[in-house]
């Protein structure tokens, strides 16, 4: 039997489905999923094949490196920022990097960062006033960036004086969904202010990384930050490779965490019963300030985070390309095409989730027989997020620190979303904070 070309929503000449996609990428994909196992659509010139069956998603994720690889478009878009960092590298280089970096992300090692997680969350909350309305997303971005930079470089580095916070902001600005079409289509040299600022930010961060690296290479101090771990690993890494890894952490490791915290706190503000149960757990487990060992016992808090990432997965889709023509059932997906693994769609699929739109952390305490790849906020297979344990620990400790002392109240029950590289709220998320 000859393989069929998958169907999908009707395309217009030239623009394909871009006009439908810009109105709401996630809703577009949810509707498109009704076309079946493999759905073909075209957005901003990219012919895409979206997979909707967990077993197909599993096949792609587990075989990344063999049958599939990261799509060229991602590598191209990130090349000047992260070069051949872990996120984009492939083959033998990726294998060696992953092996070298693994120990820095073991749970025992992430313990070193627990104090900074609690400390930076407390510092942020210390600046709030009872009854004040804060921009939650901005606050969480600052907290997670401080935590990440301390984990990468150590708490003794003068990060603010080195202008690194502003530079990271400029670096990440291109990921904003409204800027995505321009980022994808405009050449690097185009005279567009945010692209120029991004270039300057990369140069600035790079020079800071090299500067700190030089002092590390000449010191024999025993340190536990990520940069020092990479320098101490058996795998010899030259300065350029360490620069690429550091830039990768900056891109991959804080915006995603900030979004997880923002969505978790929004959902808690709308679900007082869940917030009450979570606080009961905090009061039972934590005496004084939260610590690493406490986080291991915060099982309901972890369910809250998991459920928030189900409803609002920061990585709302993953992308791959097949190395040769491949088939899923009867459907042909051609070599090199863009394969979309839509986290958002699977996480809200009625076949796997009862009442999928409802925020119900208790579902994680129940025995379910859903397929493993109906839920993959951190990806899966060999390219699974290396920072998963760090991010989970961070989410639990930051939530614990904030919720022990503060109540979060939000007037609006909806968050307006826009989806670029990550799933982001449109604008900030206003939240009124009350001291408990
Ligand atoms: C809630 C927070 C986070 C989420 C939702 C998240 C999500 C993801 C996902 C979905 C992938 C797989 C991408 C793909 O297969 O195409 C990934 C990979 C990666 N993440 Fe995370 N991430 C988070 C936090 C972090 C942190 C804290 C770090 C590091 C400090 C990090 C570093 C990385 C790196 C380096 C990769 C590439 C791994 C490889 O290809 O071997 N992430 N992340």
Automatic annotation (TrEMBL):
GO molecular function: metal ion binding; monooxygenase activity
Superkingdom of the organism of origin: Archaea
Keyword field: Heme, Iron, Metal-binding, Monooxygenase, Oxidoreductase
UniProt-listed InterPro entries: Cyt_P450 (IPR001128), Cyt_P450_CS (IPR017972), Cyt_P450_E_grp-I (IPR002401), Cyt_P450_sf (IPR036396), Cytochrome_P450_Monoox (IPR050196)
Signal peptide: none
SUPFAM superfamilies in alphabetical order: Cytochrome P450
Family membership noted in the UniProt record: Belongs to the cytochrome P450 family.
The name this protein goes by in its record: Cytochrome P450
Species per Swiss-Prot/TrEMBL record: Halorussus caseinilyticus
Organism classification: Archaea, Methanobacteriati, Methanobacteriota, Stenosarchaea group, Halobacteria
């Amino acid at each position: 039997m000859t393989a069929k070309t998958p169907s999908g929503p009707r395309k217009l000449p030239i623009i394909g489905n871009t006009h439908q996609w810009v109105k709401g990428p996630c809703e577009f994909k949810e509707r498109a999923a009704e076309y079946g196992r493999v759905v073909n659509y075209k957005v901003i010139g990219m012919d895409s094949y979206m997979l909707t069956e967990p077993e197909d998603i599993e096949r792609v994720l587990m075989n990344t490196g063999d049958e599939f690889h990261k799509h060229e478009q991602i590598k191209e878009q990130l090349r000047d920022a992260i070069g051949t960092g872990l996120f984009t590298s492939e083959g033998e280089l990726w294998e060696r990097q992953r092996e070298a970096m693994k120990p820095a992300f073991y749970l025992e090692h992430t313990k070193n960062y627990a104090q900074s997680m609690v400390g930076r969350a407390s510092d942020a909350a210390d600046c709030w006033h009872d009854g004040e309305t804060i921009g939650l997303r901005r606050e969480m971005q600052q907290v997670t960036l401080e935590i990440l930079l301390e984990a990468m470089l150590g708490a003794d580095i003068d990060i603010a004086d080195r202008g690194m916070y502003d530079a990271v902001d400029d670096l990440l600005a291109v990921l904003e969904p409204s800027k995505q079409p321009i980022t994808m289509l405009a050449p690097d040299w185009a005279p567009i202010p945010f692209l120029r600022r991004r270039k300057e930010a990369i140069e600035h961060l790079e020079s800071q990384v090299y500067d700190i690296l030089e002092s590390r290479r000449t010191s024999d101090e025993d340190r536990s930050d990520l940069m020092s771990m990479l320098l101490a690993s058996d795998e010899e890494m030259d300065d350029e490779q360490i620069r690429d890894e550091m830039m990768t952490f900056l891109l991959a490791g804080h915006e995603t965490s900030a979004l997880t915290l923002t969505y978790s706190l929004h959902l808690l503000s709308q679900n007082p019963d869940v917030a009450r149960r979570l606080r009961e757990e905090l009061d039972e487990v934590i005496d004084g300030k939260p610590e690493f060992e406490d986080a291991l016992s915060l099982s309901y808090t972890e369910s809250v985070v998991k459920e928030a990432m189900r409803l609002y997965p920061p990585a709302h889709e993953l992308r791959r390309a097949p190395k040769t023509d491949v088939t899923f059932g009867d459907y042909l997906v051609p070599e090199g095409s863009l394969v979309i693994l839509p986290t958002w769609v699977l996480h809200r699929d009625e076949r796997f989730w009862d009442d999928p739109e409802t925020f119900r952390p208790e579902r994680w305490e129940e025995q379910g027989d859903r397929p493993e790849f109906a839920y993959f906020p951190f990806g899966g297979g060999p390219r699974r997020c290396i920072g998963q344990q760090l991010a989970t620990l961070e989410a639990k400790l930051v939530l614990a620190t904030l919720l022990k002392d503060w109540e979060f109240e939000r007037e609006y029950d909806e968050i307006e979303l826009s989806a670029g590289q990550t799933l982001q709220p449109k604008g900030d998320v206003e939240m009124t904070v009350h001291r408990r």
